Amino acid sequence: MPDHSSFNPVESRSSWGKLPILICVLVVSAIYLFVFPSTNLVYISVVLLHAGLGAIAAIFLLPKLRQIFSPANFKPNAGWILITLGAALGVVLLLIGTARSH
Asked: Which residue among 41, 54, 70, 101 is least crowded, i.e. fewest CB within 10 A of its CB?
């Protein structure tokens, strides 16, 4: 009998099939943005791609927040908790902006 006590997004393909792919693309784009900071069209395109895909990933995480943060599944979901906290930080940065005058 399978253990359904912990959250596994790969098992429920209907709502979670694209989320791991989105996260991989976000990681690759974040690495590119960190390693190659420049002011060209490719960089700006990757910034917009990263922001858009991050917002989509955050929307995909919303229906599963209760399951991710349940005390019974805290340890098995530690990675998803970190991803959710990163998504929350990204949404905050999208709303308040990151450029500040000095």
From this structure: 101
